[in-house]
Amino acid sequence: MNDTDAADTDAPHARRLDAVRDRLRDGDADAIVLFPSTNLRYLTGHSEHPSERHFLLFVTADHEPVFLVPELSGEQVRAGTAVNDVRTWADDEGPAAVLASVADDLGLRRGADSDGRDGDGDDSDDGSHILVDDTMHARFTQDLREVLPGATFGLAGEVLADLRVIKDDAEIAALRHAGEAADAVIRELRADGDDVVGMTEADLARHIEDRLVANGGVGVSFETIVGSGPNGAMPHHTHGNRVIRASDPVVLDFGTRVDGYPSDQTRTLVFGDESPPEGFREVHRVVREAQDAAVDAVEPGVTTGEIDAAARGVIEEAGYGDEFVHRTGHGVGLDVHEEPYVVTGGERELEPGMVFSIEPGVYLSGEFGVRIEDLVVVTDDGCVRLNRTDRDWRTA
Questions:
Q1: What whole-number distance in Å separates Cα of residue 348 and Cα of residue 257?
Q2: What is the phi-psi region of residue 116: left when phi exceeds 0, alpha when psi lies from -120 to 50, beta otherwise?
Q3: Residue pLDDT, tens place only, 122-174
Q4: Could you tell me where the beta strands, DSSP code E, fall in the chain?
Q5: Do residues 132 and 277 both lie within one domain?
Q6: What is the model's pTM?
Q7: Is residue 208 domain-shared with residue 100, that is, in the same domain?
Q8: Closest CA to 68 of 82, 52, 85, 80
Q9: What confidence category does residue 396 fall into, taking pLDDT thresholds of 50, 70 and 90?
Q10: Burial class (CB in 10 A: 0-12, 13-18, 19+), 344
Q11: What are 247-266's pLDDT values in tens digits?
C-alpha cells in the first residue's frame, strides 16, 4: 500500500474520530475508552479479537487519541490506523503503569494522588466521566476503576450509536455487495428445486454457507437458519437433523460479510412438487403484504414505531396478530443487530443513510412459519431494498 492509498483508507476513520471528539466537547463525558469490538473497528479500521491482554483506545475532546496495546501489537497498530499515539506494554511488566500514565497525560485522574486514590478521600469529587465500550470485559473496566477511583462510568453507545446509525457511501456499498451474495444463493436454491428434498437442515445450511463464500462473501453473518416444517414456527431455530420433505415450508435466514458488513435476508420456500400445507398460501400472502406495507411506509421523518405498525396492522387485520411474536426489524451495520430498532412504539425518526431490516413473520406452532426479510436503506424520499430476489414461496 502506497502513502496515497493509506491516506484514503485512513480518511473515513479520521473523520469518525473527529466526530466523536466533537461530541465529547459538546457533552458531559470526558473520554471514551474502547476495547476490541465493532466500535473500535468503526473508529479506527482495526479488527482485533478480545483477549486477556489490555488493548484499549482512549478518545478525549482535547487530546489526540491514544492506543494502549500489547508490545507485540504495536507495529501493526501504528501501520494500520490513523492513530499516531500508540503506547505499548510488555508482558513481563504488565499494563498498570502505562495505563496510569495514559490517564495522567489525558487529564482523567483529576484529584488523584500518585497511588491513584482520590486526594481528599472522597471518590465522588471532581472525577472524570468515562464512557466504556458497551461490550468491554469486566476485568478491564475494573482496572479503569482502580486507576480512576473518582470517575463515574457510562456506555460508549451514548455517543457512538447515533454516529453509527447513519451509513456512509462505503458502508452502504459493502452492505449492498453482501446482499448481492445472499441474493445469488437464493437464486441457486430456487434452481436446486427438488434436489433439496431429502437433505437435512444441517446439510442445507452447510451448502448455503459454501455458496455464500463462492459468491464473494466472507464467512457468515450469524448462524444459518434452516427451519423446515414445524421447526420454521420457532423464529430462532437454527438447523438440525430433520429431513426436508416435499411440501415443507422452509424458513431460510442467512447472510455473509463483505468488508466486515453483513447481509441478512430471509425467504420462505417450498421445495418439491407437492402442495404446501393447508393455510400456508394465505399466511405467506399476509406476511408478504405486511412487508410491502412496511417498506412503502419508509421515508425520512417517519418513526420506527410507524414502520412496525404498518407491518403489524396487516397481520393483525388478517387474524394472526398473536403469531407475530418479534419486532419488525433492526438496524444492520458492523453489528447484525444495532440501531435503529423497528419496534412497537419506537420514537426514533428515520434519516437518510439508515439501514435496517424489515422482517415480519407469522409462526403457527407445530405447523410451519413464514418470514420474509430484506434490508432497506433510507433515501431522501423513501428507501431502496438491498435484496432483490423474488419473495414468492415457489421454487419452480
A1: 27
A2: left
A3: 444 468 999 999 999 999 999 999 999 999 999 999 999 999 999 999 999 99
A4: 31-34, 56-60, 66-70, 85-89, 129-132, 152-155, 225-228, 249-254, 257-258, 261-262, 265-270, 329-331, 338-342, 355-358, 361-364, 368-371, 374-378, 383-385
A5: no
A6: 0.91
A7: no
A8: 85
A9: confident
A10: exposed
A11: 999 999 999 999 999 999 99
The backbone torsions φ and ψ at residue 291, rounded to the nearest 5 degrees and listed phi first, read: -65, -45
- Please say whether the beta carbons of 362 and 370 come within 8 A: yes
> Residue 346 is which amino acid?
G
At residue 9 the predicted structure's pLDDT band, cuts being 50, 70 and 90, is low
66-70 and 85-89 as β-strands: parallel, antiparallel, unpaired? parallel
Q: Is residue 225 part of a domain?
A: yes
Whether 309 contacts 344, CB under 8 Å: yes
Average pLDDT of 109-132? 63
> Looking at the structure, do residues 153 and 228 belong to the same domain, yes or no?
no
Cβ partners under 8 Å of residue 392, min gap 6: none
Q: What is the pLDDT of residues 21-54, one digit of tens each?
A: 999 999 999 999 999 999 999 999 999 999 999 9
Q: Is 8 exposed, middle or buried (0-12, 13-18, 19+ CB in 10 A)?
A: exposed
Give the residue numbers spanning the domain of 227. 169-385
Using alpha carbons, select from 41, 164, 79 the residue that is nearest to residue 55. 41
Same domain, 154 and 174: no
286 inside domain: yes
pLDDT score of 11: 87
Q: Which CATH number characterizes residue 86's domain?
A: 3.40.350.10
DSSP state of 373: B
Q: What tens digit of pLDDT does each residue of 188-230 get?
A: 999 999 999 999 999 999 999 999 999 999 999 999 999 999 9
Pull the grid cell for residue 314. 396487516
Give yes or no: residues 174 and 155 share one domain.
no
Nearby residues of 240 by Cβ (< 8 Å), 6 or more positions away: 200, 201, 202, 231
* Cβ neighbours of residue 94 closer than 8 Å, sequence gap 6 or more: none
One domain, residues 201 and 316: yes
Cβ atoms of 245 and 197 within 8 Å: the answer is yes
Listed residues 142, 163, 184: the one ending a domain = 163
